[in-house]
Design brief:
Blueprint lengths: L12 H10 L35 H21 L2 H4 L3 H28 L18 H8 L3 H29 L3 H26 L2
Helix pairs in contact: 1-2, 1-6, 2-4, 2-6, 4-7, 6-7
Length: about 200
């Protein structure tokens, strides 16, 4: 039986709106984030510093501070690919997604810096949909070839789909034009990546 990383439940539009536009505006400590798998998770509420720009709102700040660790963590999974698979399609897919995530991180960190937001991971240790966690990496490191390919595709699928939902939520609830433009670019990127994932799966 193939072992795959345990996946967390998805987050629907209503919860995403609460995540970005509701609880995150309350500046509550991050006690609400789950630290392990759960069937019912509260919407996270990390501490968000007061933005240093006139247009950056609490939703924008929360989105930036969530997307940075999401991108950083998935890069750890993508870095495993060359040593765990012999499938050139998976290696190519991982390389393209990794390049996109690194470029996004440059933009996200620039926005974080210009807004005066703290350069700390507000979601350290939190088990969130779309976030690659240490347990996922342990499982991925234990797999090789076809079993690894299936597991890493599933990990990437969840990450990409959740990133698209979060980008939509920022588009709907965000206030800062530059942050919303970045969210739109990231949404388009993830739509493209889902196509790549589907084609790779269909030809396996």
């Amino acid at each position: 039986m193939t072992v795959v990383p345990p996946r967390r439940p998805g987050t629907g539009p209503a919860r995403l709106s609460a995540l970005l536009a509701g609880l995150l505006l309350a500046l509550v400590p991050a006690a609400g984030c789950a630290t392990g798998p759960a069937t019912e998770r509260a919407a996270p509420a990390p501490v968000v510093s007061t933005p240093a720009t006139a247009t950056l709102g609490g939703t924008d700040a929360a989105w930036i501070q969530l997307m940075i660790p999401m991108n950083e963590q998935v890069l750890k999974a993508l870095d495993l690919v060359p040593g765990q698979t012999t499938d050139e399609r998976i290696r190519d897919l991982a390389g393209r997604i990794a390049a996109g995530r690194r470029a996004e991180l440059d933009d996200l960190r620039r926005l974080r810096g210009s807004a005066g937001l703290p350069a700390v991971n507000q979601h350290e240790g939190h088990d969130l949909p779309g976030m690659v966690i240490p347990a996922d990496l342990v499982v991925l490191r234990s797999l090789r070839d076809a079993a690894f390919d299936r597991a890493v595709r599933e990990t990437l699928r969840e990450h990409v789909e959740q990133g698209a939902r979060l980008a939509d939520a920022e588009q709907t609830n965000g206030a800062d034009p530059e942050t919303r433009r970045l969210a739109e670019r990231m949404r388009q990127t993830r739509a493209t990546e889902l196509g790549w994932l589907r084609r790779t799966t269909a030809t396996t």
